[in-house]
Amino acid sequence: MKFQRKTILVVDDDARNREYLDALLKAEGYLVLKASGGKEALEVAGTHCPDLILLDAMMPEMDGFQVTKSLKQEEATRHIPVIMITSLTDRDSKLFALNCGVEDFLTKPIDRSELWVRVRNLLRIKEYGDFLSEYNKILEDQVRQRSEQLMASHFDTIYTIMRAAEFRDEETGAHIKRISHYSREIAEKMGMEAQFVDTIYHASPLHDVGKIGVPDQILLKPGRHDPQEWQIMMKHTTLGASILGMGRGGSPYTRMGAEIALNHHEKWNGKGYPNGIGGEEIPLSARIMAICDVYDALRSRRPYKPAFPHQQAVSVILEGDSRTSPEDFDPRVLETFGKCLPAFEEIFESHSD
Fold it and tell me: What is the pTM of this model?
């Protein structure tokens, strides 16, 4: 291991004191920096980050107490130990110095043996503190790397499930990409916290994963479903939640994916499925997903309908038609949707099938 000499900053307005301490410390092999006043001391400490500071208590303009307070308020210098050199011996002065952040004292006139002992002791403490700080950084990096690996694993799982869904339903390719962007756009405009925005972006494509369990003759039927077929088709919500492990823990992405899969066909007015719940009983993620899914379905071609242009799809959602009503949607989400119209149109055009 390469030996690294310790650096000590000596601060004193008396040049003779600075030179005396300089000679004593260099004789012990330390590197010495010098400052003649408080402001200079702060500049040198901020630039060179010494391992220890020997600081005179009584100086003009800015005394040692003020210097110490300033040092301890800055992130870059607060960890540097300070030995205050003073002729003050009263208890109140020492308590005040300790409250300012001073670690130790040397009383004038300075005894060289006492100086070396106190300097060595504080440098050992500083070295151990630096070691712990570096060790904590290493641990934090390892935790961050492991977290990134786990996140990548979660996303791999999500994308594997999504690819499986694509094989069953040809409409889901570009659709699931658009859904991610729509959901994120609304969540951001609603002022949701960053974690929610990130989670819904990755979880929303899982909304129709339950279609994996719907028979081909029903899923791919070129036309409207009869009542019995529709009952089976509606089960894709509960199947999706089951596939994603609803109520069984998992990652935040699969947990939100499960609540979206189960509830994205529920309606604010309580007329949706599978459970007919309404209002805020429906998770917010599913309320956001509901309007995104309807917009994209209206914009897309279906066996029973042509693709609607943007303005017509918006009109259906905001004004209603024979199948869709504004009362189907959370009013706050609906209002936010109205503020996102240019973004929705751009997303659809940028991620077309």
Answer: 0.58
